[in-house]
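Dear Dr. H.,

I hope your travels went smoothly. While you were away I took the liberty of generating a structure for the chain from your last submission, since the lab meeting agenda had it listed for discussion. I wanted you to have the full record in hand beforehand rather than looking at slides cold. The sequence, exactly as received, is reproduced here:
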Amino acid sequence: MTRKISRLFMLIFLLLTAEIVSASEIGPPQVGGVLPEIELLKPDNPVELKYLGLSGGGFFKINQIKADVAIIEIFSMYCPYCQGEAPHINNLFALIENNPAYKNKIKIIGIGINNSIFETNIFKKKYKIKFPLIPDGDFKLHKIIGEVRTPYFIVVKLKGAKTEVIYSKLGALGDNKVFIEQIVKSSGLK
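The corresponding predicted structure, in token form, is as follows:
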């Protein structure tokens, strides 16, 4: 009997070790690589749908956003760094939307890790976020993008079905004007 229990514990240990190793092999998206395909819940706000160039309900993929570049902020409403970064990202959004050269070419979305629709809406209201915030209450999207810490920023160049990563970094963006210049240069926007 003790042999069977020992074998069972050994099997459980091996399975857990294999799961930990496979999870650690998935890293954040790398610059020059392709963003893994993820399905996001469409916003129910018609203004946000229009901003993304989408219609209807259900789900969408990043490459369906009507833009040349998508900035994706991975955040959590419980993350104090994300809360501190919110005014800075609002400023980035305003800089993009107020510049005719970028307005319909660069879009921003946020993905709330371990956040429900209710929680992302609280964050949106408290910090006056004007771009879509997508919930990821079950960590499904978080696992696909390498279980990054927050805030994490991924910028992808959208070209057809391809989503090439041109920026992937943990932490604050720094100077918004410098960041936009870097994104414009990396993406080839004019």
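Two observations you may find useful: The chain has one domain: 28-187. The chain is about 40% helix and 20% strand.

With kind regards,
E. W.
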